[in-house]
Amino acid sequence: MANVYEIAILGRVTWSLHSLSNEGTVGNVTEPRTVVLADGRKTDGISGEMLKHIHAMNMWALESNKNAFCEVCKYLKPERADGNRSVRQKTRPDEAAKEAISTCRLCDVHGFLVQKPTVARESTVEFGWSVGIPDVKRDIHVHARQSVHVVYVEEEIEAGKWEGKKCAVRDCDTKEEESKLSRVGNKWYCDKHIPTPQMLYHRPTRSGVYAVISVFQPWRIGLNNVNFDYEVNDRKSRYQLALKAYQAMFLRTEGAMTTTRHPHTENFEGVIVVSKVNYPVPVISPLKDDYVQQIEKIKTIIGNNNVEVKKFNSLAEFAQEINELLNDEPYRLQI
Ligand SMILES: [Zn+2]
Ligand SMILES: [Zn+2]
What we know:
The protein has helices spanning 48-62, 85-88, 93-103, 105-110, 235-251, 291-302, 315-325; strands spanning 3-4, 6-18, 22-26, 29-32, 34-36, 42-46, 112-114, 119-121, 125-127, 130-132, 137-146, 155-157, 181-184, 187-189, 198-216, 264-275, 307-312, 329-330. It is of the alpha+beta class and 335 residues long. The longest helix is centred in the last third of the chain and has 17 residues, at 235-251.
């Protein structure tokens, strides 16, 4: 059994045919996220916000007693402690932080921002962008969905006889002589833009190997960041819950569009770096091919007794390494 100060998860995950994070939808086309790396290369990315959200959802799901959360997090509302009445009733920031931390494991681990009294808690779990190790293969799939609306064309005007009428679609560049105009309801449409009973959606899917980085700070679990008191007696089970959420999120990654674009997770390999003394856990990007060798070299420099590097070559090995960490204790500051 060891004391765990911080944990870094550095790895490469292979996700095929997923659609986990998107820029947003433009018309009926959903754009994948693009990020730019230090050397100028553009690649595909899944935001840290998305991954942090997935982790929080798993923490909630894996806790069988939902009373371990505040009245806000119990119902998965995003405000966290800021929506918790018993926190807002406090007048001093340290009391508000104590109330938020002691009443809710999710507020404790994932952080919050309470406006009155003003108190901010940084999350104890951090995620970077997951970035495609070039090249991620991208594809757009057209998905047809039957509309419930039947389109009635109530009136038609022949090509060349529009007489000042126009297609209702903004920036339509269909020329008068190319198309008839059809009236649906009180709007006119050219042949290209006439609503059809079948709606077409353009959905991107991507396949690739993604570099994942995350840092978890067990030493801060239950620690009031205003007065530096540890406020809870169940730090270990909070630590275990956060670790199990990591395990679950890679064993089954739920995110954007997973109802119809559930990712094919093919592999996960990398290292779990564990800092056992009060030294920030070193992080190096799995974008670098030699990141494992680098982290092992760093470990010998910092001291083999201070840092542990646990290698994993598959999802199963990752799950096993997380299981072993469950036996350890979250580091406690001597204050
Ligand atoms: Zn909460
Ligand atoms: Zn048009």
